[in-house]
Specification:
two-stranded antiparallel ribbon, coiled coil, 5-stranded parallel sheet, Disease_R_plants, globular, alpha/beta
């Protein structure tokens, strides 16, 4: 089934004007083969394809990491389920463990810091709209191992600037 999802997103990418150019720009900005921890923001209005772009990139490069997680709809899920549940999902998927329980976001942050700091991970935080979400899910580069890449999709440029995201990709492509 995962393969069908990848084909669907690849098909979505072909239906977006300018997607291929944006994909190449994002790959270059991510510098997957290089060291360090990089944060990349994909910025744009609703409906311009930020999530589709992030998903296609994620599907194409996830095998180059020791663990990967695509947290879809962070804004809605954090409001409905809480940040602790998102931390559980993130850690469970990256570490491939079940029945992980986090009681509060402080505990979750400490767990992430301890368990991911030596692991090269790919993390996509989709539709982030508050700094608290970033603080709970990816506060510091030191939480992640060398070579890790964190992609953040958002409509809020100030959030990315405040969070000192290294690169900002403006999602101004359109669906046909």
């Amino acid at each position: 089934m995962a393969r069908l999802g990848s084909q669907r997103h690849a098909s979505n990418a072909r239906n977006l004007v300018g997607m291929e150019l944006h994909m190449h720009q994002v790959y270059k900005m991510l510098g997957v083969g290089s060291g360090g921890v990089r944060f990349l923001g994909i910025l744009g209005m609703s409906g311009v394809g930020k999530t589709t772009l992030a998903r296609v990139i994620y599907d194409n490069i996830r095998s180059q990491f020791q663990g990967a997680c695509f947290l879809h709809e962070v804004r809605d899920r954090s409001a409905k389920q809480g940040l602790e549940r998102l931390q559980e999902m993130l850690l469970s998927e990256i570490l491939v463990v079940k029945k992980l329980r986090i009681n509060d976001s402080f505990e979750g942050a400490n767990m992430q810091k301890q368990r991911l700091r030596y692991r090269k991970v790919l993390l996509v935080l989709d539709d982030v709209d508050h700094i608290e979400q970033l603080d709970a899910l990816a506060r510091e580069r030191e939480w992640f191992g060398d070579g890790s890449r964190i992609i953040i999709t958002t409509k809020d440029k100030h959030l990315l600037v405040k969070y000192e995201t290294e690169k900002i990709q403006n999602g101004n492509f359109r669906q046909i």
